[in-house]
Design a protein that fits this description.
Blueprint: E1 5-9, E2 13-20, E3 23-30, H1 39-53, E4 57-61, H2 68-87, E5 91-95, H3 97-104, H4 112-123, H5 130-148
Helix pairs in contact: 1-2, 3-5, 4-5
């Protein structure tokens, strides 16, 4: 794990985590569109929020959805994240959800309940928000990957 890394589970309610397993902050944030439902305002808010956090590195769950209605927003947020990282020379790592679930939880198909039980049993973390739990798991995945590197 490297310092100043922001871990993101991008969704309608984005889960985020910053720090390391012994000392981290986490939360959720929603980027609302205006009353006309225009996406560009959501994307502008997301871009500004990234600027407030000023990460040196970002690890995010890779974009994937089975729901066409959410695809525009999800892939749009990922495009904005990629643009922000390129413009600011920030390392961006995207991890498919099955991959981090397999490494961290031991089951690439783990559902939200299993993830929460795992966090509580292994780390004593009681997190009721699924998006924050996923962001914390991305942090644990990154820690595991760092330990695996020589």
């Amino acid at each position: 794990m490297k310092p100043d890394t922001l871990y993101l589970d991008i969704a309608a309610e984005t889960g985020w985590c910053h720090g390391n397993p012994e000392n981290y902050t986490a939360g959720t944030v929603m980027f609302e569109s205006d009353k006309n439902g225009l996406y560009h305002q959501r994307f502008q808010k997301f871009y500004g929020w990234l600027g407030e956090h000023r990460p040196l590195r970002v690890v995010a769950e890779a974009a994937f959805t089975r729901w066409p209605a959410t695809a525009q927003a999800l892939y749009g947020f990922h495009a904005i994240l990629g643009l922000y990282c390129i413009q600011n020379r920030i390392e961006l790592i995207t991890v498919p959800n099955k991959k981090w679930k397999k490494v961290v939880v031991g089951n690439g198909n783990a559902n939200k309940e299993k993830i929460q039980k795992f966090l509580h049993k292994k780390y004593g973390i009681v997190e009721f928000n699924n998006n924050i739990a996923d962001a914390i798991c991305l942090m644990l995945y990154d820690e595991h990957q760092t330990k695996e590197q020589p």
